[in-house]
């Protein structure tokens, strides 16, 4: 219902209240278009000095305008807000489609160019490069990028423009296979048969590789077996590794290695699986996981075989020396230190090495219970002890020294003849 009225006669708040109450159920409207209705709102607000009214009187004015203009209360609130701010009540210009872009196409291309120069650094490193380019070297192109957030930098890298400018070729990745070995330290629980293994390289000379020594040490008894091979490839390593594992007098229940590919591969895993031996490997940020084998590398392998280059063709001679002389001496005649752990009042574990625990690996093996010795069926403790009593420690050491001297003299003689 449109009523042509002279609303200018309503010059008091009480008159507005009476008008709203008297026209309840009716819909009086100010004639005209959108501009006329907005002009009506502006006249009423100005006539009653809306900004200076009390809260109650403002409510009366709003109800009157809502009644006569047809606007919703929310839209009237927007119009009144513009009136109070002395802004035009007319319809604002339609917003431009999309959001404002701070970083232009040139910035995206500059990001791609910088990433290509620096091989796609991390977001933090890339931002630091932009800051240095702008602040330190005065390159105006990087002024906006110097303030970019790392998160939005990755947004720019994900845009089609960036990808079109920066093409990355990546080779085909091999299919992901099941992990080999378990990342944890061995758990011998007082049983012999859990060995730690490591490789020692006997140096290079003129680009030629030397022999490789395989050093394996039992966790509980420190029974040690050293073997040598020409290379650590599967064809050379697997036969030597099988011989090394059989050289232990007890059944091998577990093998722990670092993450070198010479041990962490499917063929070694199959070899250990045939022996029912568990394969474990060192964990990240746990440098002590294979510390026993690495300690023996310096205290045994380097001490008895040195650091000088030994050509690969002499691997068989070195392996024979280790099998016949070095390994028997290490396990039957050379004492090792075994720790005794104490816990202080603060809970810290302290290791001490009392004199009565300085034993040969055979003595340590004999001190274990029969179940923990885990000896192979064809090996007896009495036979091992009889082998140890066949010669004294000094006699075994002298025999070892003579054999080592003869081996190195033979190697040097053959090298001299080859050079001549």
How do the helices and strands line up, and which of them pair or pack?
Blueprint: H1 13-22, H2 34-47, H3 55-69, H4 73-84, H5 105-117, H6 123-136, H7 150-157, H8 160-165, E1 182-183, E2 194-201, E3 204-205, E4 208-209, E5 212-218, E6 224-229, H9 234-246, E7 254-257, H10 266-274, E8 278-281, H11 291-305, H12 315-332, E9 336-337, E10 340-343, E11 349-352, E12 358-359, H13 361-367, H14 370-373, H15 381-389, H16 393-419
Parallel strand pairs: 1-8, 2-7, 7-8
Antiparallel strand pairs: 2-5, 3-4, 5-6, 9-12, 10-11
Helix pairs in contact: 1-3, 12-16
Q: Enumerate the strands of the largest sheet in spatial order, edge to edge or round the barrel.
A: 1-8-7-2-5-6
Radius of gyration: 44 Å
Low-pLDDT stretches:
none
What is the number of helices? 16
Number of strands: 12
Helix content: 40-55%
CATH class of the largest domain: Alpha Beta
Distance between the termini: 123 Å
N to C succession of SSEs: HHHHHHHHEEEEEEHEHEHHEEEEHHHH
- Which secondary-structure class do the elements indicate? alpha/beta
Could you state the CATH homologous superfamily of the largest domain? Answer: Ribonuclease H-like superfamily/Ribonuclease H
Shape verdict: elongated
What is the CATH topology classification name of the largest domain? Nucleotidyltransferase, domain 5
CATH architecture of the largest domain: 2-Layer Sandwich
Let me know the largest β-sheet.
6 strands, mixed
């Amino acid at each position: 219902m449109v009523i042509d009225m002279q609303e200018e006669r309503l010059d008091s708040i009480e008159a507005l209240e009476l008008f709203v109450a008297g026209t309840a159920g009716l819909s009086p409207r100010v004639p005209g278009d959108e501009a006329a209705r907005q002009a009506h709102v502006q006249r009423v607000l100005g006539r009653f000095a809306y900004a200076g009214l009390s809260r109650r009187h403002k409510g009366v004015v709003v109800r009157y305008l809502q009644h006569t203009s047809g606007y919703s209360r929310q839209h009237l609130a927007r119009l009144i807000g513009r009136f109070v701010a002395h802004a035009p009540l007319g319809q604002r210009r339609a917003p431009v489609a999309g959001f404002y872009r701070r970083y232009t196409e040139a910035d995206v291309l500059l990001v791609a160019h910088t990433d290509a120069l620096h091989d796609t650094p991390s977001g933090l490193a890339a931002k630091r490069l932009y800051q240095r380019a702008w602040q330190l070297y005065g390159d105006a192109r990087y002024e906006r990028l110097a303030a970019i957030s790392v998160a939005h930098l990755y947004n720019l890298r994900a845009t089609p423009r960036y990808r079109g400018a920066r093409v990355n070729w990546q080779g085909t990745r091999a299919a992901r296979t099941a992990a080999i070995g378990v990342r944890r330290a061995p758990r011998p629980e007082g049983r012999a048969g859990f060995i730690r293994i490591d490789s020692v390289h006997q140096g290079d000379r003129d680009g030629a590789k030397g022999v490789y020594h395989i050093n394996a040490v039992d966790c509980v008894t420190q029974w040690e077996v050293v073997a040598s091979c020409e290379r650590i490839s599967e064809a050379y390593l697997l036969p030597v590794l099988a011989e090394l594992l059989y050289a232990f007098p007890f059944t091998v229940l577990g093998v722990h290695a670092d993450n070198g590919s010479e041990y962490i591969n499917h063929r070694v895993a199959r070899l250990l699986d045939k022996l029912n031996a568990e394969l474990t490997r060192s964990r990240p940020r746990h440098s002590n996981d294979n510390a026993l084998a690495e300690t023996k590398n310096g205290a045994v392998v380097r001490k008895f075989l040195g650091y000088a280059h030994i050509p690969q063709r002499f691997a068989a001679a070195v392996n024979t020396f280790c099998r016949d002389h070095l390994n028997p001496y290490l396990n039957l005649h050379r004492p090792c230190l075994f720790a005794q752990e104490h816990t202080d009042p603060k809970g810290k574990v302290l290791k001490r090495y009392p004199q009565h625990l300085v034993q040969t690996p055979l003595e340590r093996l004999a001190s274990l219970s029969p179940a923990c010795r885990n000896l192979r069926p064809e090996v007896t403790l009495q036979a091992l002890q009889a082998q140890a009593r066949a010669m004294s420690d000094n006699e075994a050491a002298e025999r070892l020294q003579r054999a080592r001297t003869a081996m190195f003299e033979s190697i040097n003689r053959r090298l001299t003849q080859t050079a001549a």
